[in-house]
Write a structure and sequence with these properties.
alpha/beta, Rossmann fold, 7-stranded parallel beta sheet, 16 helices, 46% helix
Length: 382
Amino acid sequence: MRLLFIFTGAGYGGVSRQVVAAARFQISQGHTVGVVAAPDERLAGELATAGASFYANSHFVRPFSPAKDLRSPIPVLKAIRAFHPDIISTHSSKAGMVGRICATLSRRVPVLFTAHGWVFSEPVADWKRWLFVLAERAAAAVTTRIICVSEFDRRLALKYRVAPAAKLITIENGVDPVPYDAPRDDSIRTALRIPENATVVTTVARLAPPKDFHTLLDAVRRIRRPIRLLLVGDGELRPDVEREIARCGIADRVLLLGERRNVPAILKASDIFVLSSRKEGMPQAIIEAMFAGLPVVATRVGGVPELVTAGKTGYLVPVGSAAAIADAVDGLADDPELRHRLGDAGRLRARERFTVDRMLRRKAELYSTLSVARERTDVVVL
């Protein structure tokens, strides 16, 4: 089977890591994999090591850009015609839309779309929300199956009549637990010059608007206990984040680490994980934190409540509430025993439900089913 993934990319984030994991798994099963995404050195290197073909699309950018957006289908069409896929799997709103249109124009094969949180669930004007809904409905008409990463997203798709229930399937995100089996290494704290009495609070996220760093940094300003916030990730908002850190007067409490390859080790050396997002699908970063045995403080958005059990593995707080985040972190900082109890419960829950092996095998079953159906009929019923 020849499987082609299409996604925006533009930074080695959660979707990139998932696609790389899927590429490795499918290749280990004897299949051939290709990937279309924005140029990214780390992504290209990981895919080359895995044995996948990479087709760079320089017109895939996250912000709205008419000049680039109108040109983005050309490299996608070329990649589809060069790779000759048996199944096309698209991810993220922009690439998902472009990929499905190109797939329909060029090859009659099963086309999947994975919704990592619906764009119409963002806080936007009503007219814009319904424009997004209508666009998703149109794209769903030429999509064989839509994978939702959370039950929240599946229910939202049904509420807005994006697609009939038969086209929607929930397959939760998953993470490889092996990197989190290593013992805690406090040399990271020493290298970062973190005081012994400081509680280490970590967030792993792209520096982008949906993550709401304004609220997170305001929360840091309010926290009473001595802490160090580690911001792991990079993105277009880095200059804004740096200015906000200075404005809040918390430069001595925040470390901007950028993108790191040793995220498991950083999480294992941390005490609390925080995510202040205004929009999420099912954040891989929270699953990683759970595998690392960290209590999680996160906003009650998207599929987050399906990950974090309030009061048992962490705390859920209202969107935009810096005070609620600060109170939760202060409470955890004051009680090491509570941190360990919540963290241990989170680790157990992650191992039961959110492993990468479980996710990949469920997707592989779907790919196999669609491939067999296509071979039998030579026609994809959409």
